[in-house]
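#structure-requests
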Amino acid sequence: MPEFSPIASGQVARTGRVGPASQRRAAGAEETARVPGRDRGADEVQFSSHIQHLIELKNGGPVRMDLVNRIRAEIEQGSYETPEKIEAAIDELMGELDDE
């Protein structure tokens, strides 16, 4: 007796019996799926150090809270912007504009 009925209106109806024999078949199917030597194991993905760095930056990157807190304190005290720092920033900006 066929296990499936003919296709009617796009659906397949199961007509086989349910009992100990069908349960043995199902158990046998699981056993054949676990054949020794065929198990590939778990898949693994490895990212290059460059990609790991980009992922870290995208997620906020490493934050040096000691540096952030020091600069915040200097800004509050009014000692962060010095003529030397402003001159260095201008020089760096001019160098970047010259490269373009």
